[in-house]
Amino acid sequence: MCCYEVGGVLCRVFGMTILLAASGAHVTERSFKQVEHADLEELYSNALQNVSVHSLATCSTLCSQNVDCKSYAWTNYSSQCSLLSEDVRRTSFYPLIPPDIAVYTTFYSDCSEFEYEAMTGMSGLCYKAYTDYQSYSETQSICQNDGGNLVRIPTLTKHAAILQVMNLKSSKEIYIDGTNIPYGSWRLSDGSPMFLNWRSGEPTGGGGENCVIMFDDGTYNDVFCTALIPFICERQLNV
Ligand SMILES: [Ca+2]
C-alpha cells in the first residue's frame, strides 16, 4: 500500500507508482471546504486516484498539487484519499454520504477563478455572457457543463441585475431560463415562479413558442425553443 512521506516522494497507489511533486514545489493557493451531501456513485466514478495517506491534510495537499483535482473525499477509518475530477458538490444530489467519509470541494474567492464575472448587486453570483447562437436546450447544456445554469429570473431585482449585465455586454437579446411546458404556465426550469415582463403584443406563441428571450430594453418575447439566440450562464461562487 501507499507509503507517503513528507518531502519524499514515492507513493504506491493501487499498483501504480506515482511521483509526487517535491515538497512545496507546486503547492498552490487553492483551498477547500467541506460539503455535506454527495452522490457516492458519481463521486467515485470521477476518482482520479485512490490513495492511502496518513492524514486529511496530506489528501488536501495532493489535490492541490493535481491540476485535474477539483475535490476530494477522505475516509478517516481507512485513511483513504480519493482525488476527484469534478466539483462533486455542483453535480451531486442525495443520498447522504456516510458519516465516516468527508468530501471537500474547491473554495473560490473570485468568479474569475472559473472564468466568470461577478454579477453586480447579486452577492456570491457569477455570470458568463456567451455570444454564440444556440438553441434553448443547448444553452442549458453549456451552462450546466460550466457548473451553473442559464440565467434564472424569479424577481424584479434579478431582472434588473441581468438587464445591467446585458447593457454591460451590449447584448441585444438572450435566452433566459423557463418554459411553459410541462406546467401550462410560465415557470423556471425548477418549477418555481418566473418574473415576466412581456413586450407589448407578447406572448404570441400559443402552442409553439415555449421558450423566452429577453431584449435589451428589458421586455420578453416567447419564441420557439429551437431558435438560435445568445445567452448568459450564471453560477454560484460557492455552493
Ligand atoms: Ca412571441
TrEMBL record:
<dbReference type="InterPro" id="IPR016187">
    <property type="entry name" value="CTDL_fold"/>
</dbReference>
<keyword id="KW-0732">Signal</keyword>
<dbReference type="InterPro" id="IPR003609">
    <property type="entry name" value="Pan_app"/>
</dbReference>
<dbReference type="InterPro" id="IPR016186">
    <property type="entry name" value="C-type_lectin-like/link_sf"/>
</dbReference>
<dbReference type="Pfam" id="PF00024">
    <property type="entry name" value="PAN_1"/>
</dbReference>
<feature type="domain" description="Apple">
    <location>
        <begin position="27"/>
        <end position="111"/>
    </location>
</feature>
<dbReference type="Pfam" id="PF00059">
    <property type="entry name" value="Lectin_C"/>
</dbReference>
<protein>
    <submittedName>
        <fullName>Uncharacterized protein</fullName>
    </submittedName>
</protein>
<dbReference type="InterPro" id="IPR050111">
    <property type="entry name" value="C-type_lectin/snaclec_domain"/>
</dbReference>
<feature type="signal peptide">
    <location>
        <begin position="1"/>
        <end position="24"/>
    </location>
</feature>
<dbReference type="InterPro" id="IPR001304">
    <property type="entry name" value="C-type_lectin-like"/>
</dbReference>
<feature type="domain" description="C-type lectin">
    <location>
        <begin position="122"/>
        <end position="234"/>
    </location>
</feature>
